[in-house]
Amino acid sequence: MVLYVSVFFDIVNVIDTTSSTLKKELSNVLTKNNLSIQSMRGQGYDGASNMRGAFNGLQALFLRDCPYAYYVHCFAHRLQLALVGAAEKQDYVWEFFSMLANVVNIVTGSSKRLSELQAAHGIEVDHSVASGERETGRGLNQIGNLQRAGSTRWSSHFNCVCSLIDKYGSIIVVLESINNFSTSTSSQRGEARGSLKALKSFNFLFVLHLMHKIMAITDLLCRALQSKSIDILNAMDLVATTKELLQSLRDDGFDVLLEYVISMCEKFGIVVPDMSARYMDGIRSVRQRDDISVEHHYHYDVYNSAIDFQLEELQYRFNDNAVELLRLSSSLEPKNNFSLFDKEQICTLASTFYPTDFSQQDMYHLQLQLDHYKIDVVKHAKFQSLSTFSELCVQLVDTGKAEHYNLIYRLICLVLTLHVSTTTTERVFSAMKLLKTELRNKMGEEYLRDSMLINIEREFAEDVDIDEVIGEFYAQKNRRVQLK
């Protein structure tokens, strides 16, 4: 378990991952470092039930001790859950991703097949460049491998879909080679034949390009939420624009997509079904409707359904009390010359979400300070180029204005406890894998913690005097090795 309080703090081994055990260990670490739970104002965890549970989750247990320690479920995890949830609700999308994983496993199953894929793709790229279908330029048309989708990052699924579209013809060549090659086993030929049948179907190609369009819209938000730092305003704006673009795709994008998929089918010799014919799903069931056409099925049962589920999940995942807290916090945002500054929203933020930090008298003085702040700070030349709360906080201290606007400064510090994303914390685990290798598997907790602190918080390590460390090392006992 990692405790990350703005900077890396500690790493603790726990006997189990129940919420009560985690709370006990976190409380012990906080107490050991003279930090009071009553002073906690922000919590950030992933979406596991033992962390975010509304009744017995870790965040709920801390909220019982401190009702203003607001929990913000990591936006990157929210988006991941929204995308996965939408895929699970749509049968055709889930079937597509299952087949996509199968294809990747077959094609990348051996170095020989990868070599065949690269050779086939190289030939395809040469033909496409010669015919003018592909643009040429620095970094374009590189011969790479088929990307594999990761289980924890939805952006990797988008990379996998893009890779499949780019190498679609080459993948078919490799699968046909496996199917026709005499040395292939029966199971290999069977898997290749099944994958070929799926890939060379109108249904697979339609869902492939549909998901490419949907994931292209969500990819910017996905990547932004995984960045090292993202401000509250940008996070909320990207969620809003993602919803708007998805709605626009739903309203106006079907005909364009259908026309493009038909053109791709003609290019690769894939049979295009009669769009006006009665739709048959191939598996007769009570759900079979005899009065719908093929075009109606793909338009409403596949296209609109997939986008609707995505919009529904985004609305559900990004619509809670924490989002309202973050929206009000954006009124203090210094970005674009304090363009979102709103005195009423700032006062609402303080009175509604932090009543124990601002008494009734404090609220009266806060309003007075905001009147001066709007003229003094918002229009001050030194504050015009700021973009984040942390920069604003530092500048208020450097200019001495934090003392004059102490209540506003206090509110800004409280806002800084809210973590839109926990990706910075998760990078601690990546650092731990680099430090605690197989050759250092007996490293103790204290040594591991100190090593991780130096590795992660490198700006602090830069201030350490190496000669002083060596001198202290020598002072402990006589050393046989001379370090200086």
UniProtKB/TrEMBL annotation:
Organism per entry: Heracleum sosnowskyi
Name of a matching Pfam family: DUF4371
Domain of life the protein comes from: Eukaryota
Domain DUF4371: 8-57
Listed SUPFAM superfamilies: Ribonuclease H-like
Limits of the HAT C-terminal dimerisation domain: 402-459
Protein name per UniProt: Repressor of the inhibitor of the protein kinase-like protein
GO molecular function: protein dimerization activity
PANTHER family: GENERAL TRANSCRIPTION FACTOR 2-RELATED ZINC FINGER PROTEIN, ZINC FINGER, MYM DOMAIN CONTAINING 1
